[in-house]
Amino acid sequence: MITKRVSFKLAGIAAAMSLSLSALAADITGAGATFPYAVYTKWAEAYKGATGNQVNYQGIGSSGGIKQIKAKTVDFGGTDAPLSENELDAAKLVQIPTVMGGVTIVFNLPGIDSGKLKLDGVTAANIFRGAITKWNDPAIAALNPGLKLPATAITVAHRSDGSGTTHVFTHYLAKQSMGFKRDVGADKTVNWPANGVGGKGNPGVAANVMKIAGAIGYVDIADAMKNGMNFVALKNKAGNYIVPSQDAVADAAGGANFKVKGMAPDLLDQTHKNAWPITSATYVLAYEKGGDAAKQKGVVDFFTWSLNNGQKMAEELGFVALPGNVVKMVEAEMKNIK
User: b or e along 46-80 (b: 16 or more beta carbons within 10 Å of the residue's beta carbon)?
Assistant: First the structure.
């Protein structure tokens, strides 16, 4: 009888310890791109309310997220600059998209309202490489007949940290201008012109644009919307001037093939008549085989829950949900996280 009591007691203790360790192990940490920070933290809050499990995400930039996941200091990394098939294979990582959005060009010119300033890709590239330095430059004036442009000096607001937003934006501009590709480059960090000012994260760029008259910069739609910033109307591949919106991002991504390795199709400069030209997805990086099975499961559980329960939250924050068929592909790809 005593033996049975001891046995039951030990079993109870073991079960309690197992449950406690399991709950602890389900808490996960991630770090990386600032672009999805708002939606990941919103999802994490709702997920904790639904499951009790904690998810902590730090917005440190895509370069930092890639570095930390490769160093095995986080359970998942966030990046707007997707890794190539070779990079994924070498690091033994799984890459999945989570939400879509757009990089917007924002400006601060007193007296000129949002959407009233028009730019095409070539002119935008010349501004951001420092070849156009005044707002009343003939190239800008030619695109904006009737708009009173001041002789104000242009200040280019850009990221000071390694950034997936920079990666997306500079790849778009490099497609428009060989001069931009030569002088500035296309990567997470690039050689910005002398008339530039750096800011950390999308919030840092937004802050610089808002406080400097004559500034122009690039941030994601969600940050621009949150801060009530002025958008440039950008000419797309179909020849239409488009103001960034969730519908324009969705139109750009509509025909994309997410079946490629790493699930990272090129969404830039799509041909749809209403497509926003600088559309991208943001991605999560996780280990194919992690050292902690409970944390690996925690990553899969969190993003499975979020993709199926958090789409409305994402849309309210200015993001664009993945199409239903892509969500199914993501769920299939996450089976490789073990």
Answer: ebeeeeebbbebbbbbbbbbbbbbbeeebbbbbbb
Closest CA to 155 of 118, 210, 200, 93: 210
- Rounded-to-integer distance, Cα 125 and Cα 309, Å: 39
The pTM for the full model equals 0.84
pLDDT at position 318: 86
Q: Which two tokens stand for residue 69?
A: 């996941």
User: How many angstroms separate the Cα of 165 from the Cα of each of 25, 98, 201, 321, 324?
Assistant: 32, 15, 9, 18, 25
Phi, psi dihedral angles at 93 (to 5 degrees) = -120, 155
Q: Are 298 and 25 in contact (CB under 8 A)?
A: yes
Residue 177 in contact with residue 126, Cβ under 8 Å? yes
Residue pLDDT, tens place only, 283-330:
999 999 999 999 999 999 999 999 999 999 999 988 999 988 899 999
| Sequential DSSP letters for 153-188 | BPEEEEESS--HHHHHHHHHHHHH-HHHHHHT-SSS
pLDDT < 50 regions, the chain? 1-25
Q: 90, 100 in Cβ contact below 8 A?
A: no
Residue 277 is predicted with a pLDDT of 97
Specify whether the CB–CB gap between 34 and 40 falls below 8 A. no
Output the DSSP codes for 106-155: EE--TT--TTTSEE-HHHHHHHHTTS--BTT-HHHHHHSTT-----PBPE
